[in-house]
Amino acid sequence: MKLAIIGVTGLVGGTFLKVLEELNFPVTELIPVASEASVGKTVMFKGKPCTVVSLQDAVAMKPAIALFSAGSSVSKEWAPKFAANKTYVIDNSSCWRMFDDIPLMVPEVNGNIVKAADYIIANPNCSTIQLVVALWPLHKAFGIKRIVVSTYQSVTGTGQKAIEQLHAERRGEKTSTVYPHPIDMNCFPHGGSFLDNGYTTEEQKLIDESRKIMQLPGLLVSPTVVRVPVEGGHSEAVNIEFEKPFALDEVYRVLSSAPGIIVQDNPDENSYPMPLYAWGKNEVFVGRIRRDDTLVSGLNIWVVADNLRKGAATNAVQIAELLMKKGYVLP
User: Fold this and answer.
1) pTM, two decimal places
2) Is 234 a catalytic residue?
């Protein structure tokens, strides 16, 4: 199987390489793709060097799957060119997510919707992915009426320059900045750019993408996105109002049996999800499970995941695995 990674030298691109190896995805030929400045350089995959090629060359090589993480402008121009060669494009940018005819996919939630003719598939935003993985089994059990979500998003969600800003500030050095404020010893309620309605683009993604993935166009979602001085892993405080009454032991059962979720909830032993320990793992961790006593059917949960793993690379590779399982791509 030929598989291309577009944006292989970036944070998500590097994580693609790790996840493909760890999950033993049957790649027979890796096609690493990056900017013209990186063409001719090598990346390591399964202990062997692979030479970086241009986008044009990668299209001509007709890979079975192309994993994109190179930004919306690259995806907009090049994803259709790969798709025209019947390459399945799994795109990590925001470019294609809200097109009606493009699947926006989290395999644990809506993997059933993909068809053989869907040559472009959108990977959701990192904070959305972990949210809907936790919400979906609860919705199926109790029906979700409304959610209020506050995110605590790490700097890796912004990119390598954000990591460099955090580290430089921590060392007390002056550096170029990607944020409007210092990030070390600070947090600010600002993700993306501000919209006319007072929300940010990152908050609007949580609304729009959750509704599309769960096929709940009327779902009430009230989000606040906060950037925090954490290097890897997003956390979310989620308040849920259900249509139906529930018992807490049933909530534990539903979450514990759901695919892709690890319940970590033992307050007596100070056990609860934290980004420090979710980093490098592919699952979504859920804890601090408790009733909201101000609502008839209200629940609070705390959701944590590695935003470069399940929030990006792992989810994309799982989509590729699904394509193979359905027989659309042959190993």
Assistant:
1) 0.97
2) yes
